[in-house]
């Protein structure tokens, strides 16, 4: 229910004057400004009244829980309540300053200087009970896991704000993990069609080392990823559970092994991130889905100043903060919405393990915990800001389905059966004869048989008038039907042949396409080489003009296997270190690109096309050519390339024309197949058949009533009974 900010403000916390009898002085002098307010995400609210994920379930759900003040806080002289929950989607955090000489007065010790208002998918005030929190924050995730989704609930917040209390709970106030287990097993026992398998694992990440909390000897585990399982921990033990009690036992074992320590903020502060993993495999006759529920209790996000950490504690805190800041960076990257921006999942074990939960295939709920105390103001503010940012994270939840071919086949069979019955029902509703079963529609010979049998029963039984004339007519019909059946069979045969021809033609077409593509590619390569050659030629003639006749290395003589592959002269061997040397290399590089075309088209020489090396073959042996010769040689080379390109273009064109020109037999087959002689003949026949039927109907109007089929105009008329 909506509570106005003022009433909520006045009644729901211990700093309230009506409850404690002590004035909360800053309430009277409240002059605070409102800051960092944001509109509620009402249009995106992903949970409906039943607590199910609804529209926009690709968004992170972010909920806040404010814990009640602890006894030791209430007795502290500096105790101040600075959090209020005006509505179940809003939270206000008050920034106060204290009066320096307040000790000698009963009131007026603090003033609010700033109000930070945030809105979230849900905010639990300090009175929220464990069942309430479970119902709204975790139950949707459990249901999702049962449906085959990945779901994650993450508890985030500074030490001592109630993360472990919320996830595990106490003996009398059980938390999310035990409640989820109960919920899962209730669903398992209720379900009649499906069988379930529930497996549990429990791990912790302590100082960036992953260890198995249910098999303490297994530590330094590695995170792996594969297509089927997504991100997973290799070597993590899995335990088959048959009841919530079994899971509880496992959880107790695991929690005992978890690294905890006493800090300034919490007597048993968790020093590690703990992840409880439940895998639910649901199989029914036609599907098998695997849901995965990760329940994550993070280590505290506090700063060392608050907890007074030193030595080992400080080291731990640094590591914890390192992975939590990696988490912050991942969330920042995910909410940036820049296309393809890098998301640093691999910066810490925590973010890598939660990769799917953060930006992948998962329905995720983040629960951020805050303390109501003024002394935790800075932590609370940074927690709320973090949670605010996380609201923008998008994931892509989808059912993890096992696509086993046998299961698929079974599913399709069921689908076909369903469609058939539906069709039969529809036919029955339309008044078609029951003899025309839905299956018969797919099989012409069946159709004929059923038609014939109906005719037979109609003509032989019940009709006492059965004269010779009728019998003769029955005989004629029989003959007709038999003929029709033969035609049907022949047509089916032809259809099969046609299918085969089409398949053959398709294959031929594919291979032609392939060849055409190949040629196209080669043509492009050639064109590129040509361009390069032209460029080199220009460069060399320019240099020639600038520096007078120079000397260029000659093309090597053709060798048997790769005729024009030149022996690349070593740059060092060239005594010339002037710019011309660079051109020597430049022109020299050119032929090195060429051999491929030679290998590709070994027929070039057979066709008598000029060879670049042949033009200067006579001069070979002098070692170097002068510039004119070089230009000549390159020009002829270009000419060769051009001719080769032309030849390939021609070939390509001829290939594109080919199906029409080269395969007249196929074309004629196609024409004959698509031609109307066979079908025309058949429809003529049907026409005649129908005409006769109509005539006979007219003749025997009192006893026969023909009706044209409503659905299939070209086949046998359906009869609506006699
Ligand atoms: P965290 O795991 O965040 O460090 P804990 O869950 O250990 O914090 O909680 C710290 C203390 O606060 C515990 O003694 C716990 O029982 C108490 N506490 C936390 N949340 C609540 C709550 N909602 N109601 C009552 N006690 C709570
Ligand atoms: Mg804890």
From TrEMBL:
User: Where is this chain's protein located in or outside the cell?
Assistant: Cytoplasm, Cytoskeleton
Sequence segments annotated as region (Disordered): 1-22, 534-615, 656-677, 692-722
Query: In which residues is ATP bound?
Result: 157-164
Q: Does the keyword Coiled coil apply?
A: yes
Q: InterPro entries under this entry?
A: Kinesin-like_fam (IPR027640), Kinesin_motor_CS (IPR019821), Kinesin_motor_dom (IPR001752), Kinesin_motor_dom_sf (IPR036961), P-loop_NTPase (IPR027417)
Q: Low complexity bias: where? A: 570-582, 708-722
Q: Which GO terms describe its molecular function?
A: ATP binding; microtubule binding; microtubule motor activity
- Can you give the residue ranges of the Kinesin motor domain? 59-393
Q: Where is the composition biased (Basic and acidic residues)?
A: 586-599, 692-705
Entry's Gene Ontology BP terms = cytoskeleton organization; microtubule-based movement
Q: Which UniProt keywords apply?
A: ATP-binding, Coiled coil, Cytoplasm, Cytoskeleton, Microtubule, Motor protein, Nucleotide-binding
- What is the similarity comment for this entry? Belongs to the TRAFAC class myosin-kinesin ATPase superfamily. Kinesin family. KIN-5/BimC subfamily.
Q: Which protein are we looking at?
A: Kinesin-like protein
